[in-house]
Amino acid sequence: MTAKTHDDVWLAESGPSGAGCSSAMLGAIVSAIGLIVGIGWAWNTLPANEAQFVAVGLVIVLVVLPLWVSLGLRHSGSLWRVRYLGSHLAVTEDGLTITSRRRTEWLAWSDMTGVELRPMDAKLASGLGIRRINRMMAVGRGATLSGWAPIQRIGDFAPERGRPTQIYLDPGIFVPLDHNTAIGRCFWRFRPDIAEALGFRRPEGDPPTRRHTKEPDSDVDELLLCRGSDDGSAVDVVGIGRLTVAMNRDRSLVEISGESVPTIRIRRRGGRTTALVPIGTTKLSALKTTVGGEPIEIVLLKRNPFSYFEARYIATDGRGALFLLEAETKFLVSSAMRVSVGGLIVTERPLMVRRSIGGRIDVAIAEHTSGEVAPGEVALAVGLAAAFGTRTVRLWGLPLTLIYAWTYHHGRTSESGWPRTGVLNASDDVSQRTD
Question: How far is residue 145 CA from its own chain's centroid?
């Protein structure tokens, strides 16, 4: 999310940290206990009129006032915002200020020396469930100032007060690099060399001007179901053509090929360790994956039925870009996975894949994507589905499933969002069904 203030400063906010969420939850619990105890004490020890007055005062002080201050600071449009959860990026004509709960960093445009591959933040990696992969970061000599309290004010920082230090800025934490964002425009305006090296999308059209500006939703048609062959050997995808799915005899190699896509190869090294996935292992060190001959790395394969989170596969290209397949539903059982791509802030594609028990792979894709979905992304999604499957069970979703079944007892029989019309079979002629 980006927002423009009346001071002509562009702001972006990252997600809350685990420690910040825990502290906020603890504060809410303490406030609730204080409210209950205070009202109980007043009701038992004071006259009725005074007790009512005290109760109203406690509600105002412990509930209404914090909410009002929080909302006022959040939407005031001023740099003087409180940053308690996560981190905040403020971009000015002079440079950038990164404010988190306990620290503020400053990096001037003129002091940026280049872009380097650096290991990502440990907390962010832990939140994604992956190791610290390398990401492209802007580097320069700046200043940092640590705070004694776990709360900072945006803009409450002067560079001369800070301690000189090397600053590493990962803008993908705050904004999607492939979107036409205001912060991306600032990078292109003040340091186009850094913007190009980081992979910011070049500015197009008029700059965003509304207070809460976000990338407009793509004009995507309803997803079209492309049904694969029953033996799992091929699937014809609208706008792309036929994808051939091949697996060798010992099921240690999955290969996806086609005329308009790079060849995808996922190879298992060593013996089979599980029968739960077609390729025979979920051990990351035993897998080697290439796209068009170039190596990529699978950094997460999560299919544990006892996990709180839905099933998820994540691959990276070694420069910080991520490719995600996630279970299509948050309920008990899912047979399809949706596709997202990007950096730490990912963009969901109008694309889903599903592998049946017999091996057939179906693809659901928008019929008119205007180049939004790259052929390589479709091929990689099909390759991951063929190698690891898509049917998942999430026992933590049982309560949600019961609630859903109770509320919608006439509910649908398939996953939300998975198309049931507009079927394109693998035997159909797709030559006339291209964009």
Answer: 29
Radius of gyration (Cα) for the chain, nearest Å? 26
Token pair 């209404």 is found at 64
- Gap between the Cα atoms of 168 and 299, Å rounded: 23
**What integer is the mean pLDDT of 34-62?**
82
Alpha helices (H) in 236-360, listed in sequence order = none
Query: At CA 429, angle to CA 424 and CA 435, rounded to 5?
Result: 75
Cβ 95 vs Cβ 108: under 8 Å:
yes
Task: Report how far apart the first and last C-alpha atoms of the chain are (Å, whole number).
Answer: 32
275-302 b/e with 16+ CB inside 10 Å = b? Answer: eebbbbbbeeebbebebeeeebbbbbbb
User: What tokens appear for 305 in the block?
Assistant: 């039925």
Domain ranges (residues) in the chain? 1-216, 223-244+295-425
DSSP lists the bridge partners of residue 152 as 83
Contact between 382 and 243 (Cβ < 8 Å)? yes
How many angstroms from the chain centroid is the CA of residue 269?
Answer: 30
Among residues 58, 75, 53, the alpha carbon closest in space to that of 1 is found at 75
Half-sphere exposure of 179 (CA within 13 A, CB side): 24
Q: What is the pLDDT of residues 176-195, one digit of tens each?
A: 888 888 889 999 999 999 99
Q: What residues contact 238, with CB distance under 8 A and at least 6 apart?
A: 224, 226, 365, 367, 424, 430, 433, 434
pLDDT digits (tens, 9 = 90+) for 279-312: 999 999 999 999 999 999 999 988 766 555 667 8
Distance CA 226, CA 361 (A): 9
Cβ neighbours of 81 (radius 10 Å): 25
Distance CA 218, CA 345 (A): 17
